[in-house]
Design brief:
By secondary structure, the chain is α/β, with parallel strands linked by helices. It contains eleven helices and eleven strands. Helix 3 packs antiparallel against helix 4.
């Protein structure tokens, strides 16, 4: 296996220490702040040691098969809130009602897996009843920001021939705009009901929960004529685990502990383009 180490700064001394701990045959730079440690004999015990050492050094790491290329995949699928973008849109919408703490607490519990997603969404959306729909545009204009490395990652994926999917338990108002802004191929999200310019506190149609996220990845892969193992799936919360579970590479981005523990790769410090050194 190769062990990829990367951080926000070029700490070659820390990388060398961790490479020695891993028993790497050699260490090569694969980017400004990334290193490939080659011919590492993987074991669960070694992974636990590397986990602790990298956390202390504020480095991200991943064990990857030698020779794997980004073009081996056909799809990159992403969660939206707190993955492709830095905010939870529903929390920011609720802030327009003065209800951000109440909604954010439900969001956090759902992302940790403590509340079933459908229940959490219904409870949060209900609190938005009566809010002027113009609040959605304000959130988009004033608060929505792309996560670090998002555009670099998408550009590299497209160059390598991958299609792009944004699948979200959030709302079509935002995924539609992300699709146009970033040139994404597919999007799927929940639709907020608006009547007479006001949010009704309900969603229209089916709910995009964990099961629907998984089905969406499977549908898009089938449409592309590829196995789901040819997909890279990125997420941060418990409702992303099912779609991450069918992927060939699952990536936890700034994720909850339950997600980091089950993902193939966890990016805690670097941006979304932290997946690129895995294939360098």
């Amino acid at each position: 296996m190769n062990l990829i180490l990367q951080g926000l700064s070029a700490d070659s001394a820390a990388a060398s220490r961790i490479a020695a701990l891993a028993g790497a045959a050699r260490v090569l730079p694969v980017g400004a702040n990334a290193y490939r440690c080659e011919q590492v004999q993987y074991s669960d015990a070694l992974k636990a040691e590397i986990d602790a050492a990298c956390l202390a050094a504020r480095l991200d790491h991943a064990f990857v098969e030698a020779g794997r290329k980004l073009s081996d995949f056909g799809l990159v699928a992403m969660d939206m809130d707190s993955t492709l973008i830095t905010i939870e849109c529903i929390d920011e919408i609720a802030d327009m009602q003065g209800l951000k703490p109440q909604v954010a607490a439900i969001t956090e519990a759902a992302m940790r897996g403590e509340i079933e997603f459908r229940e959490s969404l219904a409870r949060r959306v209900a609190l938005l009843q009566g809010l002027d729909a113009s609040a959605l545009q304000r959130v988009y204009d004033e608060r929505l920001r792309l996560s670090p490395g998002a555009e670099n990652m998408l550009a590299a994926a497209k160059t390598a021939g991958l299609k792009t999917l944004l699948v979200s338990g959030g709302f079509t108002f935002f995924t539609d705009r992300m699709k146009e802004r970033l040139g994404l191929d597919f999007t799927h999200a929940n639709q907020l009901e608006v009547v007479d310019g006001k949010l009704t506190g309900k969603v229209v149609g089916g709910i995009v929960d964990a099961d629907e996220k998984q089905r969406t990845v499977e549908r898009v892969c089938a449409q592309l004529g590829i196995d789901t193992r040819k997909s890279i799936v990125m997420g941060d919360g418990a409702n992303d685990l099912k779609m991450m579970g069918v992927a060939g590479l699952s990536v936890a981005f700034r994720a909850k502990p339950v997600v980091r523990a089950q993902a193939d790769v966890a990016l805690n410090f670097v941006g979304l383009d932290g997946i690129l050194p895995l294939f360098a």
